Amino acid sequence: MRKSQFAIERCKTMSTLQKVLGGKYKLEILYYIALKDIHRFGELRRCIEEISESSLTKQLRELEADGFITRHDFQEVPPRVEYQLTDLGKNFITVLDFMKEWGDKNLK
Q1: Which domain holds residue 78?
Q2: Is residue 95 part of a domain?
Q3: What is the pLDDT along the chain (108 residues), one digit of tens a residue?
Q4: Which of 61, 68, 70 is nearest to 91 (CA)?
Q5: What is the CA 91 to chain-centroid distance, rounded?
């Protein structure tokens, strides 16, 4: 028999979601912005101690490009930038809440 008869169709939605949110810190960044009300770069950097500034910048840019957050630059010296969830990001928070709840119960 041909292999294609037995192949399971790949879920394109899950594949895309994994690419979008697959960064090492993206879920944690969204968690802090949404659930801990942390919106500034420096605050995020302090919460995720092991992340480098360049990695945090990259992850934030990717989340912005994918439509989960917006970036507001206040054009001040010293620089002040804040991040907010978009509607897409807000819609994702219910999933993030469920993942955290599941993790608290099952990953000890």
Answers
A1: 24-106
A2: yes
A3: 455 555 566 778 888 888 888 889 999 999 999 988 889 999 999 999 999 999 999 999 999 999 999 999 999 998 889 999 999 999 999 998 999 899 999 997
A4: 68
A5: 12
Instruction: Count how many domains the chain has.
Output: 1
Q: What is the CATH number of the domain that holds 66?
A: 1.10.10.10
Alpha carbon of residue 61 to chain centroid: 10
Tell me, yes or no, whether 98 lies in a domain: yes
Burial class (CB in 10 A: 0-12, 13-18, 19+), 33: buried
Q: Residue 94 gets which letter from DSSP?
A: H
Number of DSSP helices (H) and strands (E) in the chain, helices first:
5, 2
Q: What is the pLDDT of residue 23?
A: 85
